[in-house]
Design brief:
This protein is an alpha/beta fold. The protein has 16 helices and 15 strands. The protein folds into 3 domains: 256 residues, Rossmann fold, CATH 3.40.50; 137 residues, Anticodon-binding domain of a subclass of class I aminoacyl-tRNA synthetases (Four Helix Bundle (Hemerythrin (Met), subunit A), Up-down Bundle); 49 residues. The strands form 5 sheets. A 4-stranded parallel beta sheet has the order 4-3-9-10, covered by helices on one side. The chain has a 4-stranded antiparallel beta sheet with strand order 5-6-7-8. A hairpin with a 2-residue loop joins strand 14 and strand 15. The longest helix has 21 residues. It is elongated, with a radius of gyration of 26 Å. The two termini are 42 Å apart. The mean pLDDT is 94. The protein binds zinc ion. The site of zinc ion (ZN) has 4 residues, from helix 7.
């Protein structure tokens, strides 16, 4: 299967050809661990998890190395640890765990590697040293700066003009950079801040150099795919390219991929608007699979309008698919591949909306099918397609029972079973009414009672 991906570097959809099919490499910029991640932060890891699954299907599970890092040293981390009056490591360990829990709730596979910035400081210093030696970086009092004017290629990813690159550049009072576009590779230690010794004085790394070093150390000089949100194209990815390619003269990544923005009810999510919604809050109200479905409902490069309506539609879509699977719950699924049309949609620049349409077609067929061999094949194809995008792997019965009052329902159903055993029919009937009022239908059978949500 040929996979086509849109490469931000060339602005074209290109056939993906890995440098080494035996070791396909992908890096996605991960979170800065100082706070809960919001649903907008969830879009890149879900999109690139689908690509990870597709690459594993194409090249073999052991042949794809996917690294997603943790940024565990940063201005915001230092500020938040001070605010909470706790050690930085305590803060970052807590939010690293929370992030991993969020990712698991969204149904993401664990990446092959999860490097941390603090685990790669010597490798960062090595790149900075190489840049200084080449005259591409200079040392000031405030730190070491990358000299943008020395890099003829600078701006090739974002295709910004010099003027555009200057907007949004932050110059702090103590900075002694020579040009406003220059960016920090190393920041001289300030009192009370974490710092490492280096050839260019005690200090800590800038953000961009972290990824350059983690990529080089874990995946190699040139990787196949580098991914992230569209907001990272400039300056972060532009600066990763500048550092790595200037230091070593080799391309950093062969394919650059970026997912579009996510907005909330038609507005940009922002603290000032008060519309920031956290993954863990949503995951306490909705099955993670619904959140995942919603995140994959638009093409990854298109903007995604997130809303309660979208979540309700996503839940309804999954209900429809699980209904078809529940009908076939006693049928043994064939061990088959996902249907060609489904795979073809994903291979066409991860066209998840088109892939999902194929899945609905299978569900429609499965709902009508009365012949066992056909049912076995349809169930097998639905499950294989679902696995490629990380959905439909759960027990269909459990899907319809899921919700936040499961424990309460289980208790009432158990009380009703006890009432029936005691031949207290009036009580059993009363409990059936109570459960019906909660949208729960009880089905009695010789072994006991089962239940499902209705309506
Ligand atoms: Zn990065």
């Amino acid at each position: 299967m040929d996979i086509y991906l849109t490469n931000t570097l060339t602005r074209a959809k290109e056939r993906f050809v890995p440098a080494d099919p035996g070791r396909v490499t992908m890096y996605v910029c991960g979170p800065t661990v100082y706070n809960y991640a919001h649903i907008g932060n969830a879009r890149p890891p879900v999109v690139f998890d689908v690509l990870f699954r597709l690459l594993r299907a194409a090249y073999g599970e052991g042949s794809v190395v996917y690294a997603r890092n943790f940024t565990d040293i940063d201005d915001r981390i230092i500020a938040r640890a001070a605010e909470l009056n706790e050690p930085i490591e305590t803060l970052t360990a807590r939010y690293t765990k929370i992030y991993r829990d969020d990712m698991a709730a969204l149904g993401n596979l664990a990446p092959s590697l999860e490097p941390t910035a603090t685990g790669h400081v010597p490798q960062m210093c090595e790149i900075i040293g190489a840049l200084i030696d080449k005259g591409a970086a200079y040392k000031g009092k405030s730190g070491v700066w990358f000299c943008v004017a020395e890099d003829a290629d600078y701006g090739k990813l974002s295709r910004r003009t010099q003027d555009e690159m200057l907007t949004g550049t932050r110059v702090e009072a103590e900075d002694d950079k020579k040009h406003p576009s220059d960016f920090a590779l190393w920041k001289t230690a300030k009192p009370g801040e974490p710092a490492w010794d280096s050839d260019f004085g005690r200090g800590r790394p800038g953000w961009h150099i972290e990824c350059s070093a983690m990529i080089r150390a874990n995946l190699g000089e040139t990787i196949d795919i580098h991914g992230g949100g569209i907001d990272l194209i400039f300056p972060h990815h532009e600066n990763e390219i500048a550092q790595s390619e200037t230091a070593y003269g080799k391309p950093l990544a062969r394919y650059w991929m970026h997912n579009g923005f996510l907005d909330m009810d038609g507005e940009k999510m922002s603290k000032s608007l008060g519309n920031v919604v956290l993954i863990h809050e949503l995951a306490s109200e909705w099955p993670g699979e619904v959140l995942r479905w919603a995140l994959l409902s638009a093409h990854y490069r298109a903007p995604l309008g997130f809303s309660r309506d979208l979540l309700e539609q996503s839940k309804a879509s999954l209900d429809r698919l699980y209904t078809a699977l529940r009908r076939l719950k006693d049928v043994d699924a064939d061990d088959v591949d996902a249907p060609d049309a489904f795979v073809a949609a994903l291979c066409d620049d991860l066209n998840t909306p088109e892939a999902v349409a194929v899945l609905f077609g299978l569900a429609t067929e499965a709902n009508k099918s009365e012949k066992l061999p056909e049912q076995q094949a349809l169930k097998g194809r639905m499950l294989a397609a679902g696995a490629l995008i990380g959905v439909l792997q759960g027990d269909p019965e459990a899907w319809f029972r899921s919700g936040d009052n499961v424990d309460e329902i289980d208790v009432l159903v158990a009380e009703r079973v006890a009432a029936r055993q005691a031949k207290d029919w009036a009580e059993a009937d009363r409990l059936r009414q109570v459960l019906a009022g909660m949208g729960v239908e009880v089905m009695d059978n010789p072994q006991g009672s089962t239940w499902k949500r209705v309506g």
